[in-house]
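Thread: "does anyone have the structure for this chain?"

Original post by V.I.:
We have the sequence but no experimental structure in hand. Need at least a predicted one for the grant figures.
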Amino acid sequence: IRDDLTRSLSITAHETAEIVVRGVTHAVPLAARVVETLRVQELQEVYFAQKTSKVRDVLRGNHAYGLAYDAVSVEYDWFTGSKAKKRWPETAVREAVALMWFRRLADVMTATRVMAWGGLWKGFPDSPHFQSARIPVTPSAAMRSAYTEHGGGRAGREAVWKMFGLHVSTPLTV
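Reply from O.Q.:
Generated one for you, tokens below.
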């Protein structure tokens, strides 16, 4: 992984993203990759239209602040593509395999209690989602205010990170 999005993660999310890339495969037989860190408004609106997100405003989700990321299977991605469908043709079986895979990944990622897993959310579970355990599931009004008062972007994200005692990350290069 080498991109500006990963460089903008908070140190906690940055370190655990590195675990996904380097360590998960060694901890259990899982091969995972980080597919999304920061999210822009335009992409949030696409997810909202597809009904894969309940919120339209990107600032109402922790991806906007670099405090969350999504991780998926290297081999089967989200378990919705042609390779997964060929391997598990029945939708119910494929969904069960995907949930088991994400639960195993969550066991590794949340073992230190530094990260929280979106698969445990009631009402709208988000199995690929991981975020800092220090922050609320949904960003608070104070988080949104700190972000906008500092002009958004990196300065806004850093203001939010400081609210939770998180530090600015260094680039992740793999």
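V.I.: this helps a lot. Confidence is low (pLDDT under 50) at residues 1-7, 21-28, 170-174.
O.Q.: and The longest helix spans residues 91-109.
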